[in-house]
């Protein structure tokens, strides 16, 4: 026993020595400052995307209110223009952006190829393309694209870091993606969990504190710009007997899992392509197909009086403020928003699914309240948001925390996690994981473009 007392692992930390080690190398502190500085820039990029995207949607709604039929021409034309420009100049900016960050993190992707999926150039293009899609009046969100935008900004920091910084490209990408989600939703904890649950299964111990600090700094930039508020306000939930919520809560979770899984399956099929007439036409004439999708989305916008376009945040806030479920158009908005979101994604315009998924889930929660006659409308709306988002993304913990932070619904934490887990389980029976499948498709396309090496012995 005496021989083991002097081993280094048994000694208490020497404070003065540790302090000297920390202060002796100025370059380490420069690297840390660079990481935090780029995290702040990533947060600012998301703020810019938020302002442009929300401004574009507000402009479209204002024009639609004055000349509603003009959208039947405006939406197809601008949708086609955005798809043409994206395919011609910025193909890496297509889609929601989350699969692109996952692809950049894939170990099969060589380091020099990561710029195909995340870069400053793609971040700028993504901001413009997403804003263009909302200016057209499509049913897309900006939160998923925020992940790629912020990851591209953070990834640029690698050029300035020293070799002994201890920060890898992978950690910059994970932190950047988390900053994007945290800043987009004003949910720092949700960003951290998303980084672990979706983007990375592990965080290096040597720099985990710095990466978490970077996520917090990026989130604080958004808080400074928009204020520390709950995205959808506060959900007031009374203490209820569990059996009074069991039936409606189960209906919300099962329906969210079924319809959310169906939406994910349709989006995967749209991206991978099927041997049918529509997918064949899309492969041959992608710009014309985008215009056709835009026309039908504009038609849905007319039917819903503009409620089923955009991210759906305005409609969700109105539902939470409603006195009862009778003020909600039963099943109408849910179905129209579902179709509009699928067509918008199928068109090829860059845009996310987080916002529409939350809106569809909120509407489904209101539908269940109307079906069961439950007086607990806000609680069922919050459950629907968590359940549908968990079903589409199959990230239940992230979905629960995002909804909890956005609605300040801490009193519902157990109900939210139960609903999210059940919905995600049902979704897995219906569809493959959305982001993982699209990421695999991107990696396969990258390898398909690589030249085949010559056979040994041939010249």
Question: What brief labels describe this structure?
Answer:
globular, mainly alpha, 0% strand, 459 residues, 2 domains, Clc chloride channel, disordered N terminus
Description of the molecule:
There is one protein chain. The protein is mostly helical and 459 residues long. It folds into two domains: 26-226, Clc chloride channel (Orthogonal Bundle); 242-444, Clc chloride channel, CATH 1.10.3080. It is 70% helix and 0% strand. It has helices at 15-24, 26-66, 71-89, 98-105, 120-136, 143-155, 169-185, 188-199, 208-226, 242-272, 277-284, 286-303, 313-321, 332-347, 354-372, 377-393, 396-407, 413-430, 434-449. The N and C termini lie far apart (67 Å). The model is unreliable at 1-6 (pLDDT under 50).
Low-confidence spans: 1-6
Just give the CATH class of the largest domain: Mainly Alpha
Which structural class best describes the helix and strand composition? mainly alpha
Secondary-structure arrangement, i.e. CATH architecture of the largest domain: Orthogonal Bundle
Number of helices: 19
What share of the residues lie within helices? 55-70%
Can you write the helix and strand succession as a string? HHHHHHHHHHHHHHHHHHH
Q: What is the rounded distance between the termini? A: 67 Å
Largest sheet properties:
none
**How many separate domains make up the residues?**
2
CATH topology of the largest domain: Clc chloride channel
- Strands, count: 0
Cα-atom radius of gyration: 23 Å
